[in-house]
Amino acid sequence: MTATGRPGRDGPERAAPGTAAADPAVARIVGAGGPHVPRMLARVEERLAAVATSYGPVLGEHALATISAGGKRLRPLLVLLAAGPDAPDEPVARAAAAVELVHAASLVHDDVLDGASLRRGRPTVVAAAGRDMATATGDLLFSRAFGELVENGSADQIRALSRASASLSEGELVQRADAWDASVPVERYLHRCELKTARLFEAACELGALAAGRDDAAPVLGAFGRRIGLAFQLLDDVLDVSGPAERIGKHRGTDLLDGTVTLPFILARERDPGLAALDPRSITTPEQAERVCDAIAATGALDEARARALAIVADAKAELPDVPQRRALELVADGVVDRYS
Q: What is the mean pLDDT, run by run of 10 residues, along the chain of 341 residues?
């Protein structure tokens, strides 16, 4: 689940099933993380598939389709990197699977709420099987995430993922309350991004440290993850305006059409009286959204939004502790920026 647009709906997070590390940026991160990382990623994929197929053929079909639809597995990768090379395999793999299961569940539920027909180029569960089946599939993935952590026997791990999951729900309520409201201030927008994107990144890093038995490192690594998640969302919202459509796999201005007010629009309204007077409800076609995107870009708001995200990434890297996996974590931060350059 994301704070504003839906990365992965049919856009930037798209990847073939099980081939996340084939992406050049991800491959660099995996290489810097050490030889244990690809092995652990494979183990995480095995656990995800086992969970998806363990509750009968009906739910299993849709759960497996959701999990195998691809994506860069960035959140599980953060778990593995935060855990480090000497962490025990099984607890770390379970923690990484748990984070991805919560993420997958949130995407399924998002698609139900939005009535979305495609995600990552494939029919959504709600489009293929209806609202009831999609709701049940999301519920299954969500519940099994905590089942994974129960096997680790750590209340702190369950607590970390529970906090992030509650934030996802709170963020969804905030986003729904803010729909079509052009007066949303920057602070409210950033809070929404924290809730719906950054907190799960934070939990991924915390879980890695906790599963490795490095409880003292959990707060500082969690803070790194939170900053990276926030920058991730800001830059994704920039991409929704800047496009192009063939790169992001959707029309420019999809957020505008959804009634979701993001940072570029907020900043542009401060600079352009025409945009300040615009009622978001009047944007009803992709062509109108494209024209508004052009007007936003003309104000320089995209450059300011990018600069804010870059500053957040710089802070995240500066506060990283001196750990063996520091270089790989820095590459995660760089990769968040590079995919929008």
A: 44 42 79 93 93 82 81 91 95 97 91 80 83 90 93 96 96 94 96 97 98 96 97 95 66 91 98 97 96 98 96 96 90 85 56
Q: Using an 8 Å Cβ cutoff, are 153 and 176 in contact?
A: no
User: Do 99 and 204 touch, CB atoms closer than 8 A?
Assistant: yes
CA-based torsion, 103, 109, 115, 121: positive or negative: positive
Distance, CA of 147 to CA of 296 (rounded, Å): 45
- Residues 37, 73: Cα–Cα separation, whole Å: 12
Q: What is the CATH number assigned to the segment(s) 20-338?
A: 1.10.600.10
pLDDT of residue 116: 79
Domain ranges of the chain: 20-338
User: What values do phi and psi take at 130, rounded to 5?
Assistant: 95, 165
What's the rounded Cα separation, in Å, for the pair 295 and 268?
8
Which residue bears the tokens 């990847």?
15
Contact 69, 18 (CB under 8 A): no
Token output for 15: 């990847």
Best CA proximity match to 305, nearest among 252, 260, 228, 242: 242
For residue 244, cis peptide bond before it (omega within 30 degrees of 0):
yes
- Distance, in Å, from the CA atom of 226 to the CA atom of 203, rounded to the nearest integer, reads 8
CA separation for the pair 75, 1 (Å, rounded): 12
Count other Cβ atoms within 10 Å, centred on residue 330.
17
Measured in whole angstroms, the distance separating CA 126 from the mean position of its chain's CA atoms is 20
